[in-house]
Specification:
mainly alpha, Four Helix Bundle (Hemerythrin (Met), subunit A), two-stranded antiparallel sheet, 5 helices
């Protein structure tokens, strides 16, 4: 198998995006995080929860080939509670990652019993979905008069 990125580089890329999304979550005022929306879109808290519903479960599914059914997540009642869940998922991803056999990145599964893809394809979907929702978060922050974190700073 030839590759452009190692599994460790894929994880570093993903976790860089997760760090940036975490900073976007932190930038929201508490009183707007659960309710503010633009153009009828969901509040950012609900969008962030969708990202969480994919994150560790995707890593686990790629590692094991076992996929739980996807269920819409319940949004916690505070930004602090969501950030705690975010950090927990980060730890889970980091713990699961070294257990992924290299062949699982190219094996094809039906993720969550719904979406057929390679392991790396499922990971890329989770990252792309997060980037998409983070972009919506940027729009919300700007609408609130708040300068969002630099999109390129994933440190």
């Amino acid at each position: 198998m030839s590759s452009v990125l190692t599994p460790e580089q894929v994880l570093a890329h993903w976790q860089g995006h997760r760090r940036l999304t975490r900073r976007v979550i932190e930038a929201f005022p508490e009183d707007k995080f659960l309710s503010f929306s633009v153009g009828g879109l969901r509040p950012f808290a609900m969008q962030a929860m969708e990202c969480l519903a994919l994150a560790a479960p995707v890593a686990r599914g790629v590692a094991t080939g076992q996929w739980a059914e996807y269920t819409a997540p319940t949004t916690p009642d505070s930004k602090a509670a969501l950030l705690a869940l975010w950090d927990q998922a980060t730890g889970e991803i980091n713990a699961i990652w070294p257990t992924i056999p290299v062949h699982r990145f190219t094996d094809v599964d039906k993720a969550f019993g719904q979406w057929e893809n390679t392991g790396i394809g499922s990971i890329q979907y989770a990252v792309d979905n997060e980037i998409h929702h983070r972009g919506q978060g940027y729009v919300y922050l700007r609408a609130l008069g708040i300068e969002p974190p630099a999109f390129y700073d994933r440190s």
